[in-house]
């Protein structure tokens, strides 16, 4: 029986709205799976070992997951390789139907899946539910793109030959994902891979394994065959071992990783011996430039949306605010006013909270170190600048002015709720400061000068530019960076090509 017959038909659900009732109940137990998922089965580690997953908001125990190792990972890879032999032969219509059903199931359960994210990594529930809508959108998008993996007929230089190019799935894909978007960073990769006809072995972040495992639950309900999706969970202690197996296994054809630049470089080295396909979405240091010609109020609203999402813990958050001297004081004043007005720190299950905890105390330590370094070098602390009284993993929304390029907060990715503002004089100076980084993921700027908009957009050394807007991520657009921010693109019509090989076929002897 085809996958389509098993699925039946289901209309596409509209995005659900956050209700007040969403804040009254925490994670539903039926969505919290304390086993890994391999070949369609819920399994423990062969060693029997487990690791605990804690709620960063209060340190409470959420549950435990199998602490898997190299042996467990090899088994998952073997099962994915076996499944690939039949999944690559499935019709694009069958893959599309499964992904569409998977999308519907995520949207039907948007509220409960959002609660899981909030409890697991701390982001406010409204943001968490927004992530579920965003994450599900990749399944919807790639359900459609599965049917558009066109090849080409190539004009032949001789009459006796016909030349064509077709696209084929690369094989088993190892997906290594971060904790800040524990659902969307999986669906953006897995949706494309599965649509292309690949199978996947996912290693989620040790802080957020439950958001990965619930996707397997829904995949099963959507009719995805055993072995097509597999999730290997492990503690921080076993992360290096598991990642190394994924990178070095000859059965794995591709690695897709989202995380730090330093870790990405290690994974690239490990992939070299088997010459794997790789996609790397690595660190950022996003400049946010405000020119004298900008609408200052719009720029401040864009800054708020860009900087404080997930408490500043995204790779595309504004990291360095570059403000032209003519509007510098005005921008700083208005930004401070909006920070006081809009931001409230606390547990993400509280309805009016906008800033949840950072992922762990180590993350808080880094943010505080960067803040104190800036102050010690002459930056002015206008607001915040210390741990928040809400708990160990919270940090006060912070505003620093008179920042210079010598400070660590200019050179390093902050990954926290700290706005570092730098004054500049000319457009050339702003572009030079924006490009003064070894990474180039996202860049933002505000201007009402059309010629300036074209010049700056083209001269910024980043993979993505937002003009007069603070939010640029969307399913339909390519996501990725240049320089040390990564290799490849995710999402959009280009995302599925990362999981396919182009095969050239030459047919001779034509009479």
From TrEMBL:
EC number: 1.2.1.24
CDD domains linked: ALDH_F5_SSADH_GabD
Active site: 281
Chemical reaction(s) catalysed: succinate semialdehyde + NAD(+) + H2O = succinate + NADH + 2 H(+)
Molecular function terms, GO-annotated: succinate-semialdehyde dehydrogenase (NAD+) activity
Major subcellular location class: mitochondrion
Gene3D superfamilies: Aldehyde Dehydrogenase, Chain A, domain 1, Aldehyde Dehydrogenase, Chain A, domain 2
Gene Ontology biological-process annotations: gamma-aminobutyric acid catabolic process
Pathway, per record: Amino-acid degradation; 4-aminobutanoate degradation
Localization of this protein: Mitochondrion
Superkingdom of the source species: Eukaryota
Task of the protein: Catalyzes one step in the degradation of the inhibitory neurotransmitter gamma-aminobutyric acid (GABA).
Name this protein carries in UniProt: Succinate-semialdehyde dehydrogenase
Record organism: Lingula anatina
